[in-house]
Amino acid sequence: MTTETDVADAIIDRIRITADVKEKVVIAGLIRTPFKSPGGEQSCSTCIYFHPRHEHCGLPELDFPVDPDWWCRLWRL
Ligand code: SF4
């Protein structure tokens, strides 16, 4: 059975092998709006990787500026 962690690991593995930021954005599925999930709204502002002081994604494989209202498939609480 494939878990959410398996999917996230597969996405991260794909992001790791490219240096192209645009390609990383596409693979991560970054969107410029919050994502409405059955459990509530998700956005960078509520993700464990978000650094609010610098509005930056701290996930090492992404490591770029993001807006608090954006979202990607690697969002985690
Ligand atoms: S992992 Fe995704 S949702 Fe989380 S801060 Fe980075 S870009 Fe935003």
From TrEMBL:
GO biological process terms, semicolon-separated: aerobic electron transport chain
GO MF annotations in UniProt: electron transfer activity
The protein's name: Uncharacterized protein
